[in-house]
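Hey all, quick one. A colleague (J.T.) asked me to put the guanine job into the tracker so the inputs and the structure tokens live in one place instead of scattered across chat threads. No bug as far as I know, just bookkeeping. Sequence used:
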Amino acid sequence: MTTKLILGKDVSEEIYAELRQRIDALKVKGTVPGLAVILVGDDPASQVYVRKKGEMCESLGMRSVTVRMPAETTQDELMAKVAELNADPSIHGFLVQLPLPKHLDEKQVINAISPSKDVDCFHPENVGRMLIGEPTFLPATPAGVQQMLVRSGVETGGKHVVVVGRSNIVGKPMAAMMVQKGAGADSTVTVVHSRTKGLADIIRQADILVVAIGKPRFVTADMVKEGAVVIDVGTNRVDDPSRPSGSRLVGDVDFDAVKDKASAITPVPGGVGPMTICMLMANAVKAAEDACGRGPQ
Ligand code: GUN
């Protein structure tokens, strides 16, 4: 059996081509989609993510605004910036890059973002809307996984999806999306996590396995059913003395061992990774389309 590699670069390029058309259509109507990112402090990983988001925005012809605030920013200053972006009609969507410095209250900040501009889908109102299947933004990483399945022709209806990990950003919303009625969903979903008993036996029942538990090579070949579709959301940096950098990225799945059992699998890097920014861009375009449809406020 040949194993199909599902590559985020290929899937995201398909989606970017569609987004470019939607952005052009918005521009014809006089709207340039605007996405802002608030970055507080100087966390190195966050700096890289924020730069990549800005570059992608601009390469698509959207307006990108990066708001850099010092690590000593107070809660009031950050809340004032959120209020300012909520009120700015040229900014259709924005996010506050996490994690925030420890003295800041993340929940209060997320709750203050206007749900109509919450392109991360972190606001409780949007999380609730997603759960009950009402139109809303979808959280970027699980939405990216779903697009990889759909656009690779993986049938999900009636299939057993096992989600490994229960984070608010990936595991929980992934399960909520796959159990929903409709195309690319209609699955039977099981969520397993670090406290699950008989975890390997449950994982072995998966037709589609989505792994986001944050442990390098956690899923081994003996846990995977022959012919399963394996989506690896993990990105873990491990020591590798053979590399000049001394380290490399591996997923939550033991790729080399699992790839021969899977019918399709995502590598790390190059798998799910590129999808997250892509789906954020899709949410920003949707935010601009929604605002355009509502007309001037
Ligand atoms: N930090 C790591 N991932 C994310 C994300 O998707 N959104 C935000 N706001 N911060 C993050």
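Adding what we noticed when we looked at it: The chain has a mean pLDDT of 97. Residues 95-98, 120, 140 surround guanine (CB under 6 Å).
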